[in-house]
Amino acid sequence: MAKFFDEMYSDGIHTARPHYGEFTRWLGEQTHDAIARKRAEADIIFRRVGITFAVYGNDAGTERLIPFDIIPRIIHAAEWAELQTGLVQRVKALNMFLHDIYHDQNIVKANIIPAQQIFRNAQYRPEMQGISVPSDIYAHIAGVDIVRAGEGEFYVLEDNLRVPSGVSYMLENRKMMMRLFPDVFTRHKIAPVAHFPDLLLDNLRSVAPAGVTDPTVVVMTPGMYNSAYFEHAFLAQQMGVELVEGKDLFVNDEAVYMRTTRGAKRVDVIYRRIDDDFLDPLAFRPDSSLGVPGLLSVYRAGGVTLANAIGTGVADDKSVYPFVPDMIKFYLGEKPILNNVPTFQCRKKDDLAYTLANLKDLVVKEVHGAGGYGMLVGPASTAQEIEDFRARVIANPEGYIAQPTLSLSACPTFVESGVAPRHIDMRPFVLSGKTVSMVPGGLTRVALKEGSLVVNSSQGGGTKDTWILEK
């Protein structure tokens, strides 16, 4: 039997953990055909609503559904409370780090992080040096990927601080479960998540430029062909704000304006879902048609707030990830509540040697990679794939980190053969503004292929509803 932490059963198959007790009784009352019909109904509704995900380079088409599993991931209140405290601690430290590196750089002067790890990082933006942002907040919305391994200990797998996605699926999964199985909700006291858009809007309004009392907030999207466009439109609609593209905005007299049928309207806060490089063709990529010429100059002058801030990517780069526990100690004077996954930095001679000698047992990732691309899962790779990857690491060791292959926790999942364990992770969303806040839960992603550890939607993963049981 595979050695992994089973979220639902304490003995792997028969004895439900206490917080899953009522759900397992309910599940035992359902037939396979009834569950299959409900899953098919969910697929029809999701497709009708337009909840699809663009898959680039997929010959079968550019749009598909993210598979939705009807067996939730359940976490009890006490466990969530500790997890939430650890997430808030981590995101506070990351925001302090971002402010520091773009101002006094004390963490570099203290030799906690090597200067080259920051200033030679492709995500570091020298244009942000010395710029003051409201409340010193850079990562207004953070999606922190959490895994459970070993005997059930939580680990942070990575921090997503640039344009983290997945909130809409968290919300739509809950709506779907309540629609399909209203009876199961009467048997559980599940903490709500539906208020997230209101919380997000309040958070964005709280970081408006100084002196603005009634800020105008917009969601800025690259357009309908972006993989997460559904989410951009969904969040704008849920918050009751305009969804705009770069062509809808213009700069005049150190302010950003939106074109409307009633004339120009000033914009105070832009929740941007566009990467740094494409935001302003005058400052970054001159060939970008997605951004707003002059946006950086307004931002530098304090005339508009960007969420997340330009330059946040340096804090979620995988080469900086190993230093986050040190950041927590340095800025907060606290012991990290949540642990990192042990990480080998291939830029270091000894770590590189260990990595090359153990590729078949490790997960190796590009430091700038995302979405499950540019990585090697040693135990699931062929000898040729390992040798090809070895050459890539040797050619550019600074571009890679390596981690042990964790036995991710598994949750029972409804697959073609019935209910079977599949590996999962979770992305809770942390909002930072005048305060730091969260909704209880997050997006649980599931690797639908038997034995697979890759949960990313772009790599064939699915999603589950996440229940935090209230006391």
From TrEMBL:
Domain Circularly permuted ATP-grasp type: 72-447
Signal peptide boundaries: none
Stored SUPFAM superfamilies: Glutathione synthetase ATP-binding domain-like (SSF56059)
Gene3D superfamilies (alphabetical): 3.30.1490.270, 3.40.50.11290
Residue ranges that the Swiss-Prot or TrEMBL entry lists as coiled coil: none
Pfam families: CP_ATPgrasp_2 (PF14403)
Domain of life: Bacteria
Protein name from the UniProt record: Circularly permuted type 2 ATP-grasp protein
